[in-house]
Each structure stands twice: as C-alpha cells, then as structure tokens.
Specification:
Layout (H helix, E strand, L loop, with lengths): L29 H4 L1 H9 L8 E3 L7 E2 L7 E8 L11 H18 L3 E11 L5 H17 L3 E9 L4 E9 L16 E5 L4 H11 L2 H6 L1 H8 L7 H8 L3 E4 L4 H12 L2 E4 L5 H14 L3 H7 L6 E5 L9 E8 L4 E3 L16
Parallel strand pairs: 4-5, 9-12
Antiparallel strand pairs: 1-2, 3-6, 4-6, 7-10, 7-11, 8-10, 9-11
Helix pairs in contact: 2-4, 3-4, 5-7, 5-10, 5-11, 10-11
Length: 345
Amino acid sequence: MHHGDSLAPAADPAAAVDAEVQATPTTPTVREAGEFAVVAAVTARLPQSALVLLGPGDDAAVVRAPDGRVVVTTDVLVEGVHFRRDWSSALEVGRKAAAQNLADVAAMGAVPTSVVVGLAAPADLPVAWAESLADGLRTECAVVSVSVVGGDMTRAGQVVISVTALGDLEGRDPVTRSGARPGDLVVVAGRLGRSAAGLALHLRGDAGLLQRHAELAAAHRVPAPPYAAGPALARAGASALLDTSDGLLQDLGHVARGSGVRLELDAAALEDDVRALAACAEELGEDPWAWVLGGGEDHALAGCVPAGTALPPGVRVVGRVVAGSPEVVVPGVARPGSTGWDSYR
C-alpha cells in the first residue's frame, strides 16, 4: 500500500510496537513497572567511558571537558514524524537517535564525549522496548567510544526521544558554515541518497521491493555517518563543514549563504551515488538524482577545503567554490522538485 509522501503514523501508533517486544504477561509495560524501575533497567544497560566522572543516578552527570569548551547539539525524534514503530525496531530507533546527534558534533570538527536522552512514552509501552532502545543508543555511541550519561523519562501519547550530545574540540576552532572562500573545493564524506531511497521503499510498502533493496531500506532506519571525517577534516584545515541531515543542496545552501559564495557541484563526482540507487529508482518510478541531491538523513558530512588540501580517507571532491550570488548549482542536472527536508512541509 502506498502511504503518500510523508512519514505518516500507523493507524494506531500506540499499538504498533515491535513484534519482538510485544507486551505479554511476562513482559511488563511502563505503567506496570513504574518510571523508576524502567529508568534503572535502562541505565543498567549503559556502560560509562573514562571521560565520565559521575554517570547516571544523581541530579546531573559530570563529564570531563578536556578542551575547556563544550560543543552541544540536540535533536528531537517524534513517532510518526521521524520514525515508525511498525518499520523500525527499538534498537534501530536508538541507533538513529544517537547517530544524528553524534554526526552534528562531528560536523563541527569535534569529537563526541557524551550523550543525554529524554524519553516520553505511552504508559502501555513495553519495558522491553525501552530497554532495546537503550541498547541501540549504547551500540551507536560505542562506535565513537562515548557514553549515555543520563536523561529523563515522562508520560506522553506517543514515543518522543530527545537526545543531546556533547563534544570536545581538542584545541581547534569549530568548523562553521560561514568560512568557505572562492577557490575552495567542495567535499563530501559518506553516502548520499540512501536514506531517501529507503524511505520511498517503506512508504511504498511492497514486501518484494523491500526485500530486493534491503540495504537501502535499512539505510533509512539506521544511518552510517562518517564520524571520523569531521575531526579529520578540521585537522586538515576545512573552511566550512556541516551534516547533510536535510539534503545535500539544502544544507550546502547554508554554506553558500553563510559564506556569501556560489557552490558549483560536479555531476560526474556524484554519479557513483546515483548508480547505487538507479535500480531501486527505476522500480519505484523515481529520479535517483532527487534522492542524491534532496534526500536527507544519511548524515553524510559536506563542506569546503582550500585547494591542495590533503584529504582524509573517505573524503571526495564534488565541486568548487566561486565568487557569485549565494547558491548551489549542479550544471547539467535538473534541480529536483524537493531540495531537502523541512519538518513543517
């Protein structure tokens, strides 16, 4: 069944829980267990790194800040807007929630140090779902060796997850969106368009398509940000950097406007991304260029470096910065109808 163009909630979001954590007589709900028991069960699954001086269990955590400055970012994931429990397991939701915040820290050229999480959930949510969510948060945070150091839990009509990530600049200046200069190269680390393709597959709801393109479907549920590329690009002297959470054109547009420059992307440098999506796009009747240029939630990193910069592994040149009106263009490629994600459209 085709669900339309938005991430619409299931008919009954509160009932659409993961098959592996359905409430049973031996699997209590949050209401039955109580808030403090659930918090204790969740925090017991979260080991603490050496940067954590005081972890969960007190009024606040205490985390080392070696640089003396702290990078802070936060995101909110709302059921039916950012994820669906009939598509994603609790572990996948946890990984996605952590990934999009850790990617934002990396996009500042910083190294993540810790994460705090707020969870609002219906009273009939199985405790096992919350525990699996914690496992997902722990799994993704382990990729960059950081810990979930605390958070909060409250009641709500649907699942809402708020994640705040902290990071350390290691003595460097933050890499912002406003430092690009004419003569710089535009670079990308990570994959483009995969999450958008996966969303299209899930919206179509065809089991055969989902099976044939399982890797793309999974890319929507769990992104794979190139975390190490952020600090590596900062060390290499990147002039601008951001996380492509809302789509390559839309996010690079922030760099163009913030820096007062024109970004010209090379279509040939993006062909590998397009080819990886071509078969899926053909089956769905979609344009793979729209996914590559306008699809968000891959959490690739994009930005600019001075010409001649030695690029870190996994970073590729996709265009150049020139003087001109602040915009992003891709000569030879029609601009997609949607150039990125907007929560209110």
